[in-house]
Design brief:
This protein has 71 residues and is an alpha+beta fold. The protein contains three helices and two strands, in the order H-E-H-E-H.
C-alpha cells in the first residue's frame, strides 16, 4: 500500500471511530418543527443508535411524513 492509501485508511478508521463516539455520547435528538423530517432522517442515518423525536404541528405534513415512511 502506498503512503496515500495508508492515510486514506487511517482517515476512514478515525471517522468511523468518531461516529461511534458521537453515537455513544448523543442520547437523543429532538427536531421541533420537523417539516418533512429531512434533518431527523439525516441524523437517524448518520447515528443509528440515537433516538430521534420529530415533532410537527401541521397534521397534513405529519400525514405526508407517515405515508412516506410506509413506502
Amino acid at each position: 500500500a502506498t503512503c496515500s492509501d495508508r492515510v486514506r485508511n487511517r482517515e476512514r478508521t478515525t471517522a468511523r471511530s468518531a461516529d461511534r463516539r458521537a453515537d455513544a455520547k448523543l442520547g437523543g435528538v429532538v427536531d421541533i418543527g420537523a417539516g418533512l423530517g429531512i434533518f431527523s432522517i439525516l441524523v437517524a442515518l448518520q447515528f443509528p443508535g440515537v433516538r430521534v423525536l420529530a415533532y410537527e404541528a401541521d397534521p397534513e405534513v405529519v400525514n405526508d411524513i407517515v405515508q412516506s415512511l410506509k413506502r
